[in-house]
Amino acid sequence: MTELQEVQITEERPLLPGQTPEMAKEAELAARILLDRGQTHSVETPYGSVTFTVYGTPKPKRPAILTYHDVGLNYKSCFQPLFQSGDMQEIIQNFVRVHVNAPGMEEGAPVYPVGYQYPSLDQLADTIPCILQYLNFSSIIGVGVGAGAYILSRYALNHQDTVEGLVLINIDPNAKGWMDWAAHKLTGLTSSIPEMILGHLFSQEELSGNSELIQKYRNIITHAPNIENIELYWNSYNNRRDLNFERGGDITLKCPVMLVVECNSKLDPTQTSFLKMADSGGQPQLTQPGKLTEAFKYFLQGMGYMASSCMTRLSRSRTASLTSAASIDGSRSRTRTLSQSSESGTLPSGTPGHTMEVSC
Ligand code: BEZ
Fold this sequence. Notes:
- The protein has helices at 2-7, 21-37, 75-83, 89-92, 121-125, 128-135, 147-158, 178-190, 193-201, 204-209, 212-222, 227-238, 284-287, 289-302, 313-319; strands at 39-45, 48-55, 64-68, 97-101, 140-145, 163-169, 257-260, 272-276, 355-357.
- By secondary structure, the protein is α/β, with parallel strands linked by helices.
- Residues 55, 76, 79-80, 83-84, 92, 97, 99 line the site of benzoic acid (BEZ).
- This is Protein NDRG2.
- Residues 1-20, 322-360 are annotated as: Disordered.
């Protein structure tokens, strides 16, 4: 945090003695460039050291966007294409972002010694308060993929008050059953760890299509210098407990959720927006960042964080009749704008918590 505070920018910063306005502008530009590159920090937690990178500056009265990546990836390989996509820029300029690396997944991470007790997914969720405390951040909007989506959901179940919203991409909230274990063991007999992880990240169709993107990620995972660490995260993922979501029960997410693809039967439909994406595959944040960004904008607008003027013309026309209290100044209502679309592709109908489709 100290690093962040040192370079924090305010519009009316007084000039230092001997500083000209031009010099102040140059210093401000340099600070911005630095922050745009991200500041990496490590915190010690009861489950080992955790590394995360912060982009942007904290915005008053706004939650941080906190991301958690899937197995086989780190924050960059999982989220860079999404956060650096063109349309995302109008979102991220309004939020500070905290991108967490699961332990041992950061670039250059040393390989853990044989027998190292890697944290369970529940324990990884318990490291998030250490990060927020270190940064002095009080609330987040979580964006997680696969194992990361599970971790953020567990965190949200344990710390409801600090989670304003969740974007969960391809979450599997259930522990592996006996059949899954048997299938997993069988696959393990014939496939390498990288192949199994690729099978978790991408659909069979994507893998056999062998696009440039698949080749890139196959190469990253097959040649990962920290493959032993990746295997430990993979094992924790496969040993996850049930999240035990119960619609209408005590164990459910109380915050607005944008759920991308499956798992729609167990969450509260009045609080959940579903994004069903055609041909989205296993990692839509890599393959369809534009569509995901558009849906994310609706979601944030529903939480009162994005003015409709920030949205694309298409988005505006789809949501204009639904938004009652969106603002970009941090004051907001809980009005929900994400809502249902029919198979024919009509968009929001005003009833929150159904399927939202973003057409190709
Ligand atoms: C961001 O601006 O939040 C970001 C930049 C690079 C990689 C990932 C995220």
